[in-house]
Fold DDE-1 domain-containing protein.
Amino acid sequence: MEHGYAVGQMGNADQTPVWFDMPVACTVNEKGAKEVKVRSAGYEKQRMTLMLACTADGHKLPAYIIFKRKTLPAREVFPRNVIVRANENGWMASDMVEQWIRMVWQRRPGALLAKRSLLVLDSYRGHLTDGVKAALSEAGTDVAIIPGGMTGQLQPLDVCLNKPFKDRLRKYYVDWLSEERRELTPTGRIKRASLGVVATWIAAAWDDIPESLVARSFRKCCISNALDGSEDSALFEEASDKEVSDDDDE
């Protein structure tokens, strides 16, 4: 790239699927038991897509949530620090990427300063359309596309953030599932958490991710490191105990 970017103007965005039911990966049970019951609400196949984004100074942008449905319930109340949309396939189509650029990326801190910015994206085809390229160009944003198969080494969200985020999200789900008073369907199943409740979990789980871990993730992927090489060791550093919760070890 021919431009120099302020740390707060280098970002990464990534879509990640999330299922309505998030059972824990392990249980405590009597040794030798032939059956081990994993508690869930029975909606494991129903999913949504999230677009998470952050900047190299540690700032987290509002989560963009796409529920797999035709429309959103008219009276549903959602937290103000997320953006919620509906799509029959539950996917982040290119038109939604363009909308995300306008509603999230262009409203990030410092976006109005007219400084050149950099956005790191994976090679998902929805990021490569002419409409998306035009929207980013209009926003004064250069794009760095990560080659296929390299997101596990070069994408901050993949390398450091998606797992602890989903671990925290699962904790909110398990806490809700453990509550004694919950509505049941006529057939006796646990009634699925409302979209507003799920959106609240997402907002809280994303807010729980420490800014220090976000900033470290960009250095670990060699995106925001000092040009003099003094921060290159970040590539080999692990997150501290304060940055990653015990849930991440599950």
Notes: The first strand starts at residue 10 and ends at 19. The domain at 7-23+42-249 is CATH 3.30.420.10 (Nucleotidyltransferase; domain 5). Confidence is low (pLDDT under 50) at residues 26-31, 33-43, 245-250. The first helix runs from residue 94 to 103.
